[in-house]
């Protein structure tokens, strides 16, 4: 939003969401929802899939930081 010189308040208004909703997303307190991905894609003329793909990659990266060490692999089927 900085390169566009938009405040959270202005961007939220333009996206049709509350300032709180956008602030939580921007400050990484909420993940990107499919609905928000659609809103951002319409506002930026990009695809919702690209936004959701970025969220998925971040979510997996975060999960890998706390990867469980107590998983036993399933036996292979013959």
Describe this structure as you would to a colleague.
The chain is elongated. With 78 residues, it is mainly α. The model has no long low-confidence stretch (mean pLDDT 95). It has two domains: 1-30; 31-66. The protein has four helices and no strands. The longest helix has 17 residues, at 48-64. Helices cover 56% and strands 0% of the residues. Helix 1 crosses helix 2 and helix 3 (34-44) crosses helix 4.
Question: Key terms for this structure?
Answer:
single chain, mainly alpha, 78 residues
Task: Describe the structure in brief.
The protein is mainly α and 78 residues long.
Structural class by helix and strand composition: mainly alpha
User: How many distinct helices?
Assistant: 4
Number of strands: 0
| End-to-end CA span | 54 Å
- The domain count comes to 2
Radius of gyration: 17 Å
Summarize the helix and strand pattern as letters.
Answer: HHHH
Helix coverage percent of residues? 55-70%
> What average pLDDT do the residues reach?
95
Q: What ranges have pLDDT less than 50 throughout 5 or more consecutive residues?
A: none
Apparent shape: elongated
DSSP strand content: under 5%
State the major sheet: none
Task: List strands and helices in order, with pairings.
Layout: H1 8-15, H2 19-26, H3 34-44, H4 48-64
